[in-house]
Amino acid sequence: MEERPETELISIPATPRASTPEILTPSGQRSPRPASKEAKSSTAWTPTSFISPRFLSPIGTPMKRVLINMKGYLEEVGHLTKLNPQDAWLPITESRNGNAHYAAFHNLNAGVGFQALVLPVAFAFLGWSWGILSLTIAYCWQLYTLWILVQLHEAVPGKRYNRYVELAQAAFGERLGVWLALFPTVYLSAGTATALILIGGETMKLFFQIVCGPLCSSNPLTTVEWYLVFTSLCIVLSQLPNLNSIAGLSLIGAITAITYSTMVWVLSVSQQRPPTISYEPLSLPSFSASVFSVMNALGIVAFAFRGHNLAMEIQATMPSTFKHPAHVPMWKGAKVAYFFIALCLFPVAIGGFWAYGNLMPSGGILNALYGFHSHDIPRGLLAMTFLLVVFNCLSSFQIYSMPVFDSFEASYTTRTNRPCSIWVRSGFRVFYGFISFFIGVALPFLSSLAGLLGGLTLPVTFAYPCFMWVLIKKPSKYSFNWYFNWILGWLGIAFSLAFSIGGVWSMVNSGLKLKFFKPPN
């Protein structure tokens, strides 16, 4: 039979690349529908394994085009992850339209905050050499463990670990994973949210004092009342339904964090240093006291690198297909975020210690700036710095509270087998906001426990990811990769115990009287 000329071939339009099937969630966002039972993935066979070049070779051009387009479609459909239908109702996984920009905003908002302002306090106990060395090692270490978490998000074909606890369960087992990961992640999220209420309320009070000055009324708001004002603002903003919906707030938090971090260290180094300044590490009366204070200082350095408890959740907001896995945009955004995090943390730590030395008050560089230079810096500039801190605390509260909101709603949807209504969701968030407020009022010294918080939550950032990599990826036994991750993991556990002891000693020794941003007398 005579073949048709090439110009007479019927043109078949290319089939558009398949996208993940979606369903409409309670808040109006779109989320991927769980894969059906027919779309089962297998390591031995894939939906496109039969469409090979040898199979296509005897087929004419039009049919070949159809099969190639079908191959692209099946590659997408064959990669559909088996999702829990409940995920479409929960705030973390409700919307999966995130991208690299959202990842950068969320990571930067979670990674820079009030904990950066107390880094010069750690340098006062460690000195120049050990301070810079410990900060550099901690930065590189946590960047490596962040890369591990990004890679492990879809380590098992057909499964996405959308939450840190889920990944811990896959690595350590169902029960042990919950015991190891649930307490530090919840403690880090809830403890950070409570500390943000304390710091935000105290900073709002200082902002009001600076702006109002001598014109203030004779009955100003008390500190607890300022806590309540800040909590109310947090509750209003927390009504945004899911993690992707707060991307704008995370962008505001990232911009304000970079801005006030830069302003604080620039204003500090531009002023004349105190005449009695010294850069020798603070000496304490006994050797044991010196050791515990150094451990507490290292705990402060460790606490500066928080946010790994949110890495899985941030990546869960992104779509993932065979050709476009979620780890690619996540890692791009994380690299940009941690570049700016380094630009914030290192100048604040080094510049703050250079400006105040071991005269640094326990509240951190903002406390020192207010105490030493409140009369030398224009009131407007100082007020702007405090206002930016307030905005950053409001933004950080939202992203750190989202895993707790997710846990509340997961418990509700599991019991009722239906999504939370708007009123139930709002009730959970109002309840959580005021519980955090009451804890802050009952434990007003919580914001000074940076060393203890760093020690207790250190495994989440520095230890557990290394163990997870070995247990899930299973590198060759006794290889460099195997030894390296086991050593890093156990070092992280040892440091966690040491830093926690140092944090407890510092808390008891100070009589629980330290507070952030409290102006010195």
From TrEMBL:
It is a multi-pass membrane protein. The lineage of its organism: Eukaryota, Viridiplantae, Streptophyta, Embryophyta, Tracheophyta. Carrier protein involved in proton-driven auxin influx. Mediates the formation of auxin gradient from developing leaves (site of auxin biosynthesis) to tips by contributing to the loading of auxin in vascular tissues and facilitating acropetal (base to tip) auxin transport within inner tissues of the root apex, and basipetal (tip to base) auxin transport within outer tissues of the root apex. May be involved in lateral roots and nodules formation. It is found in: Endomembrane system. One of its GO terms (molecular function) is symporter activity. This is Amino acid transporter transmembrane domain-containing protein. It comes from the Eukaryota. The chain crosses the membrane at residues 108-130, 136-156, 176-199, 247-267, 287-305, 336-357, 377-401, 422-443, 449-471, 483-508. Its main location: membrane. Keywords: Amino-acid transport, Auxin signaling pathway, Membrane, Symport, Transmembrane, Transmembrane helix, Transport. GO terms for biological process: amino acid transport; auxin-activated signaling pathway. PANTHER family: OS05G0424000 PROTEIN-RELATED. Pfam families: Aa_trans (PF01490). It comes from Populus deltoides. Residues 1-45 are annotated as: Disordered. Belongs to the amino acid/polyamine transporter 2 family. Amino acid/auxin permease (AAAP) (TC 2.A.18.1) subfamily. One of its GO terms (cellular component) is endomembrane system. Residues 97-508 form the Amino acid transporter transmembrane domain.
